[in-house]
Amino acid sequence: MWNSWIRKSMALQVKALQGEVEDFEGRARRNNLRFTGFPEGSEQDFENFKSFIVKYNRTYEIGSSEYNKRFSIFKESVERQKKLNSKRQHPDDAKYGVNAFSDLTPDEFAEHYLGIYQRVPASTSSGYVPSSKEVDKIPSKFSLEGKGVLTSVRDQGACGGC
Known about the structure:
Layout: H1 2-30, H2 43-55, H3 65-86, H4 106-113, H5 132-136
């Protein structure tokens, strides 16, 4: 019950702040003002970042150095997503988009979510080399979808097991 009340209260506060920000931005545009201390970005960049902040319950104070830093990281993340999506060659290829981690640098993500586990390079010391017949049997594509062995995507937090 308290959780529900807190969520509603926070949603109302966020909505009120959004209104204030939109009013502030509108007055600035009408008066042709440019504010210093704010990061560079298109109006669409700011709209996308505001939507991100609301959707993922971020609490960056507008105009603060943390807000500016996270906005810049967010823009870089969106550009990286666009670049990766431009390399898609097939509808089944990975598709990148804004998610709960879009305001983190790759290093921050690794530090917080990949945990203590370190990747160990695969060892090739066994000396085994597959025959060409074995290699020919390997399918060019393999998917476990539709085979009843996959579950839906879940947030596993920072356990580091993946």
